[in-house]
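In response to reviewer comment 3 from the previous cycle, which asked for concrete evidence that the modeling workflow produces usable outputs, we include below a single protein chain processed end to end. The sequence was submitted unchanged, and the resulting structure tokens are shown without manual editing.
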Amino acid sequence: MPAPYSEDLRLKALAAVDRGDRKSHVCRTFGIGRSTLDDWLKRRQTSGTVAHTPHYRRGPQPKIADLEYFRDFAATHGHLTQEQMAQRWSQPISNRTIGKALKKIGFTRKKRPKAIENVTKPSKEPS
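The workflow returned the following structure tokens.
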């Protein structure tokens, strides 16, 4: 996603419109689209500012937003299956979502952190 236009450019373009310049001329001068200029004018009229919307997030919100709380929940209920954990969660949630969240926090049910190396003794007889 491209970066938003700077507030300085927005203010200069709106100042040119306020001076009486035609919108099409202002758009060509500053290299912006007509709909962009119209959006800035509308935003200034409604909110009083032309700053871009901060922290805009695309896509759906995560089902489990508080990972610290979920980390404590997983430590307490880690012996249960994902389906049982989903049933005990405070909101309706699928066991697949529980699995994704467990992976995100790095939770594992392994007893050892890494696999044991297979060490075989060298044979004394030549093969």
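The mean pLDDT is 87. We consider this sufficient to address the reviewer's concern, and the full set will be provided in the supplementary archive.
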